[in-house]
Model the fold of this input.
Amino acid sequence: METWLLLAAGACVAAFVQGLAGFGFGLVAMAFWSWTLPPAMAAPAVVFGSLIGQLLAVRSLRHGFDWRRLMPFLLGGLAGVPLGVALLRYVDPAAFRLGVGVVLLVYCPAMLLAAELPRITRGGRAADAAVGWLGGAMGGFGGLPGPAPTLWCVLRGWPRDQQRAVFQSFNLAMHGVTLAGYAAAGLLTAQTVPVFSIVGAAVLVPALVGVHLYRRFSDATFRRLVLGLLTLSGVALVIAGVRGFW
Done:
């Protein structure tokens, strides 16, 4: 019962954050789920929950959508997903917690400081594709395609709506491909059915509330709070992961 409650709580909080800020479902959910769910179950649950949330937010992407800007990320991501899916079979829970914790510790402070970092104007579409490849690999491995392209879009200095359109569209596509990859690899079993049912039911209302508030609520302070809490969670996960090796 505690596992199911933690699963639902993580999905609710993660869906609201994703709906409001446009990113963060996997990071928030993993801060809850990586403590109790094995990697082979946690990663598909993240992908499924985030996919539902992204589908609910599709209408919010129309303001800044640009196929030419998105395409390099998609092509790179499609090349990276199979590697991530293949790696997921060989990682143990301690290494998984450590990896998620490291991602949190790198990504969250970087996003907090992103406004102060210099803008990246070089590299063109090749650099965008490389970032997409990294996001695809992270998506296949842990259901976390968003951190790399989200931070990259900020560093590119693109307008807010264009940033959101790129990384949310990328996440939506990568989650669909990754879920298909999990199915092909035999990672979607009867045990994932109740997990998906709980996650799917838990994300619906919080995701819609977050999307509704996106245009009516300044998310800057909220984002700082969320990223700060996730940084602390990353510290705890790294400590737990290191202890797991002893």
